[in-house]
Structure formats: C-alpha cells, structure tokens
Amino acid sequence: MLLSLSLSLSLSLSLSLSLSLSLSHGSEAVWEWSSPFVRRVEVALEIEGVEYQYMEEDLQHKSSLLLKYNPVHKKVPVLLHNGKPIAEPLVIMEYIDEAWKDNPIPPQDPFERAEARFWAKFIDDKIYFPFSPLNGLDLIHLLCLPSLWRTFRSKEKEREKTMEEASENLKILENELKDKRFFGGETIGLVDFAAKIIAYWVQVIQEVTGVEIMSSQKFPVLLKWIVELLSCNVVKETLPPKDKLAARYRSLPGRR
Amino acid sequence: MGDKVVLLDVWASPFGMRVRIALAEKGIKYEYKEEDLGKKSPLLLEMNPVHKKIPVLIHNGKPICESLSIVQYIDEVWRDKSPFLPSDPYQIAHARFWADFVDKKIYDSGRKIWLTKGQEQEAAKKDFLECLKLLEGELGDKPYFGGDCFGYVDVAVVPFYSGFYAYETCGNFSMEKECPKLVAWGKRCLQKESVAKSLPDQQKIYDFVLQLKKRLGIE
C-alpha cells in the first residue's frame, strides 16, 4: 500500500530533496540508529509489511526536520506518514497497528490491550529509566550532564541502589512472563516490542560496563524469552550490530 | 446489562477524576470505593499489586490500571455512546500524544508548585506555565481539544482545572492572566454534567493542598 524510499539523512542532505521525495511516497521515520525506542517501532513496521524510509538523526545537531515534526519533545523516533508526524514510541506503535490493518499487532481484545499498555508503560517507566543515561535518546543530556554519567559510573552506593531497583522491576516482569513463550502468549505482541531493550540493549550495556544486571540464575524465564525473541526473523533484522552498539557506548564521554 | 463495574479511587485525584468523567459520559453505573492511601485496602493491593495506586477500574472482576488506559478501555468497550477517541488513526495518535504530554509534564510540576518554596517552586512554576502555554497552542480556537465535541484529551486535561485555584494561590500568579484560553475552556467543560459531577470544587482542592502541606510540614 505505501511505498518507500531508502534515504539516509545526513546533515549535508538538503531539506528540499527529502521533501520532494516525501511527496510521492508513503511513510518515513526519523530516528537514531542506536535507540531501542526506534528499534521497537521498526519491528512493528516490519511486521505490518510496511516499507519505510529510515532517516538518521544526529542528536547533537538536531535537524530542522526533527525540530519541526516534534517541537514539543524534540526526540526520536518520529514517524512521518504522508508528511504527518507521529511521536512517542508507544503512540507510534498503536498508530501503526491501527493504520495498517492487515497484520494487527496483538492483543486486540480491549481488556488484554489494557493489560499490554500497562506492561509497556511499566517497562518504559521502570526499566528504561535506570539505564536511560546509556541509550542514544539521552545522549544529548549526557553530554550536558557529565556528572550524571559519572554518578552512575563511580558512586558505588548510588549505583547499587539503582541496580537493586532495576533487579526488583525485572523480577516483576519475570513473574508476568511465567510460562508464556512471549509476553503476548504464543506470538509476539505489543509488550514484547516494548521489552526489546531488555533482550538486547541490556546485554550490550552489561558487556560495556562490566556490571551484571541479569544473570541466568536470577532471571531464567527472562533469559529464555530473550533467546526466543532474538530468534524471530522480524526482530533479528532490526537489531543494530552488537559491536557497533558497544563501540558507541564505549565512546561516550566521561567513560573511563 | 449485567456488567459489574467498581472504581477504586481517591476524591482529590485528577487521575481518578478522568475515569469518573469517562464513566459518566457513557452513562455507566458503577460502585465507587474511596481508598485511604495511608491504609490501602486488600482489594486495591490485590487488583494493582505492581503499583498499588488508584484509580483502578474493576470490570466484572478484572482490573484495569492507569487512568489513560482505563479511559481508552472504557471507550473501546462501550463504543456506541459518546466516543472519546476519533476514528481516524492519525487523529487518535495525535490525541494520545497530547494526553501523554499532560501526564509527563503537568502533574509533577504542578505538585511542586504546591509543595515547594523558593527557587524550586519558581523553576516548577516556569515549567508548569510553559507546558500550559503549549496546551493552549494545541487548543487554539477550538471549543474543545477534541474539536467541536468533548474528547479524549479534554478528559485527560480537565481534572487539573479543579486545581487551578490552588496552583495560582500557592504559586502567586493568575491563571486567568497566564492562560485565559484554558480557563475559558475549563468553564465550558464544567457546563457538561459528566464533568460537573466528577470534579470537586476548586476551593476544596485548595483546602486539601493546605492540609497536605501542613501534614508534610511545609510552611
């Protein structure tokens, strides 16, 4: 239904070029390659079979396009569908589900949907937050607040507290998963998309920082889920290469 | 119809007010249970074990938590009467974005205006007013955020209207002066029965805030 373009936006690409391309084609997404929020949206697009154009943002020098389409938060990801912007990862995911009706993202029952929204929000508020200095989205904050990074890195006690909280919240998620194959049951659903960060990003962060957040003894169910999730084609294809991601985190200022 | 609907709530909670308005708009009969947050009921702890927060809607024994999620649920289940969300996916996304904005930005800074002093309060006031001005921009000249009809974003925002007197008095500014459009919109919403009966009086909220400040030892 919607056609795509593959275009990689860099600062040297002129605005007029991207706009003229958008006239004859469908949806575009503006985002930053290392962001897990972005990847989550990508999986949803892949599942729907929507072709899309990926536009890389440099979060240190936000493009006028980003500032125009998300003036309120100035964050990625932003989905542009026929020129109309949609922001906020969960909002985008639901939009994708509603706009492309061919492959509905489960669950569809109102009560299960409400439950899925609850868990997606829980993940956003309780799991991302402790790790937020480390994802691409907050890179700009990190650069402005190196103290935040140093706190995370060096203040043993504070870091321990953060880790403890993260651990508790991961336990809550583990209980929710129980015997199911995915959070969505037999198939991937809204919550699995939202929880992708745990599957992949946390592992990379563990490697880079040397801090173990999820051990197989403490979180056997989550680790099994990670293996299942990462073996799905649709998920595999949208993961950034591990070494590239690790290199990105290692190169963040204030490290070592 | 045979539906059993229970709402666990606290009278002064703007999040709870959203649900009350939604239920009233749809004409749904329900049982209201006032919670004491100092002594949470076993029902609340059972129905929202993760966050232990209100509001919680219990529909035929099944709990739904998080106010915006509940409002969407109500809209989806009782689809036929007074829909809150538009039917076009883009407009739905737009509405969800603004409701999410209110949650992220307005509640916390507003609370800080009530409960802090000096520089912290000034910073919170600045934040708060900036966000309200953004909201005013979104409202524009429309009668409601939803356009001609009261909609999802209106449900999400209007509970904060009952806090306006408390915000302006604690923060030492005038809502009418800073955000005249929002004040006018709030008055317009109050003319709807569902809103009028779900929102406490602004004076009552102010008294509540004063009591809270006393209890927390502020000023």
Fill in the keyword field for this structure:
heterodimer, A: 256 residues, alpha+beta, 14 helices, 55% helix, globular, disordered N terminus, B: four-stranded mixed beta sheet, 4 strands
Q: List unreliable stretches of 5+ residues of chain B.
A: none
Rg measurement of chain B, Å: 17 Å
Beta-strand content estimate of chain B: 5-15%
Q: What is the rounded Rg of chain A? A: 18 Å
Shape of chain B: globular
* H and E order of chain A: HEHEHEEHHHHHHHHHHH
| DSSP E strands of chain A, number | 4
How many H/I helices of chain B?
Answer: 11
- What multimeric state do the chains show? heterodimer
Quantity of strands of chain B, as a count: 4
Structural class determined from secondary elements of chain B: alpha+beta
Binned strand content of chain A: 5-15%
| Main β-sheet description of chain B | 4 strands, mixed
Mean pLDDT of chain B: 93
Task: State the secondary-structure class of chain A.
Answer: alpha+beta
| H-E string of chain B | EHEHEEHHHHHHHHH
Number of helices of chain A: 14
Largest sheet of chain A: 4 strands, mixed
Question: Any overview of this molecule?
Answer:
The complex is a heterodimer of chains A (256) and B (219). With 256 residues, chain A is of the alpha+beta class. Chain A has helices at 15-24, 36-48, 64-69, 89-99, 110-131, 139-144, 146-154, 156-177, 190-194, 196-199, 201-209, 220-230, 233-236, 242-250; strands at 27-31, 53-56, 78-81, 84-87. In chain A, helix 2 (36-48) packs parallel to helix 4 and helix 11 packs across helix 14. In chain B, a hairpin with a 2-residue loop joins strand 3 and strand 4. The longest helix of chain B has 27 residues, at 89-115. Chain B is globular and about 50 Å long. A four-stranded mixed beta sheet of chain B has the order 2-1-3-4, with helices on one face. Chain B is of the alpha+beta class and 219 residues long.
